[in-house]
Amino acid sequence: xxxxxxxxxxxxxxxxxxxxxxxxxxxxxxxxxxxxxxxxxxxxxxxxxxxxxxxxxxxxxxxxxxxxxxxxxxxxxxxxxxxxxxxxxxxxxxxxxx
Amino acid sequence: xxxxxxxxxxxxxxxxxxxxxxxxxxxxxxxxxxxxxxxxxxxxxxxxxxxxxxxxxxxxxxxxxxxxxxxxxxxxxxxxxxxxxxxxxxxxxxxxxxxxxxxxxxxxxxxxxxxxxxxxxxxxxxxxxxxxxxxxxxxxxxx
Lengths: 98, 143
Hints:
The structure holds two protein chains of two kinds. Chain A is an alpha+beta fold. Chain A is built from one helix and eight strands. Chain A is globular, with a radius of gyration of 15 Å. Helices cover 22% and strands 37% of the residues of chain B. Chain B has helices spanning 4-17, 80-96; strands at 26-28, 40-51, 61-75, 112-119, 123-137. In chain B, strands 1-2-3-5-4 form a five-stranded mixed sheet.
């Protein structure tokens, strides 16, 4: 088994265990790992906010998803940033639309 | 008895609170972030004061006091600058309408303005108006 095979097998196992949402990207539903931690936005003493993100397989991500709208369990978000792990996962940093 | 500095801050808050208030949430010397459930907030605080050298012993002291008015606004629909812009406008105009704050100070003057934006779950705009307020205290105390 090559290292790439091992990597893919591990990624599949991680997603299978940790997936918590269904992500609709360009009309296709894919599994995702969604996070919604609390953060404080900068500026003065700051503003309490959240930093939503979703992790999908890199193979499920379009080439240029930034500024596109995706749905997570039916809730629309705009993709603000794309971060590739380089090992098979891609994280979208999201912005709320409602 | 309070110092003139605390009184100036209160005078600013009183102006901003006149019905209709510029914002539902008007705080003073706030040290915590605006809550996630709040979309607009104004914070007023005193950030320092500089005395003018007196020429006569025992004479009143003229001060230039730095008062900051922070405007916060968040939105999921528009960018941070557009979210905070209406609040900035109403705050500026409310204070410009009476530059003596009801006779409490000599002049609040025109403020300098700083801005910062962030985009997380929501888009937030923060604007700081810094007023260099001229006012006077009696000699030997800060009343």
